[in-house]
């Protein structure tokens, strides 16, 4: 049996989606970074009479992640990814390897994805940035004060995510989760993002929070600096339909 992952992905797509308009192989396999245990990320564009869904399979011992979309579903999910500031699906369509293309459908989907990626994520509004500054300032205080190593590690994860979000917003750059967070940080700001990641690693290995605190403090300054006293938010409450009680 042919175990080449690209050939395997092409065979899976042909067997499961013979009428697909476009098939894109994304992820580490398409980028040439696949290992023996890497899964196959396959995006499939189907006609508007089909379904939009995600499904995980195991084929010949390899995990296969299917991302199946109609044209309408793809447009809606692109919009959701922009709102979430991730651009994950756009990256799949923009950088993946085309395995099937009917009448230029893959090219059209790729063009839409590339346009979203070029435009970048929406900027955080001023009130949201202020709230995130306040939350990061509070977490940074906790990081400096934590006496228990386990608690310090837990707080460091919160600080890493919050600082990353502010730094990426500063650069109008896409965010990401898991392995994509360090990748996006390094791409957006090699020096500050690298210092943040190095500080987090140093803390995890040694328990010393000082380098991470320094890196986060510089990122906070980009967003307006630490925020403690003077911060205020009014809870707007929940609007209920007329005649309804909570």
Structure, described:
The chain is α+β, with helices and mostly antiparallel strands and 246 residues long. It has 2 domains: 5-119, 2-Layer Sandwich (Beta Polymerase, domain 2), CATH 3.30.460.10; 126-222. The protein is 54% helix and 13% strand. It contains 10 helices and 5 strands, in the order H-E-H-E-E-E-H-H-E-H-H-H-H-H-H. It has helices at 5-16, 27-31, 71-83, 88-95, 105-119, 126-145, 149-170, 180-188, 190-206, 210-222; strands at 22-26, 40-45, 53-59, 62-69, 97-101. It has a 5-stranded mixed sheet with strand order 3-4-2-1-5, sandwiched between helices. Helix 6 (126-145) runs antiparallel to helix 7 and helix 7 runs parallel beside helix 10. The longest helix is centred in the middle third of the chain and has 22 residues, at 149-170. The chain is globular and about 60 Å long. The N and C termini lie far apart (62 Å). 31% of the residues are buried. The mean pLDDT is 92.
């Amino acid at each position: 049996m042919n175990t080449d992952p690209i050939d395997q992905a092409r065979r899976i797509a042909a067997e499961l989606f013979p009428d697909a308009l476009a098939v894109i192989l994304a992820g580490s396999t398409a980028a040439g970074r696949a290992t023996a245990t890497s899964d196959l990320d396959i995006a499939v564009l189907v006609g508007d009479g089909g379904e939009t869904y995600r499904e995980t399979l195991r084929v010949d011992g390899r995990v296969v992640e299917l991302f199946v979309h109609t044209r309408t579903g793809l447009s809606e999910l692109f919009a959701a990814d922009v709102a979430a500031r991730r651009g994950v699906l756009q990256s799949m369509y923009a950088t993946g390897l085309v395995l099937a293309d009917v009448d230029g459908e893959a090219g059209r989907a790729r063009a839409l994805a590339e346009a979203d990626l070029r435009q970048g994520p929406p900027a955080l509004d001023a009130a949201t940035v202020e709230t995130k500054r306040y939350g990061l300032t509070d977490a940074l205080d906790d990081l400096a004060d934590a006496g228990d190593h386990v608690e310090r590690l837990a707080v460091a994860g919160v600080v890493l995510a919050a600082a990353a979000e502010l730094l990426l917003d500063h650069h109008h750059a896409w965010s990401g989760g898991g392995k994509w967070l360090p990748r996006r940080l390094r791409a957006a700001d090699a020096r500050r993002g690298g210092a943040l990641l190095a500080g987090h690693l140093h803390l995890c290995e040694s328990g010393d929070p000082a380098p991470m605190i320094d890196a986060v403090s510089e990122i906070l300054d980009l967003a307006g600096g630490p925020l403690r006293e003077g911060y205020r938010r009014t809870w707007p409450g929940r609007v209920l339909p007329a005649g309804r009680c909570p």
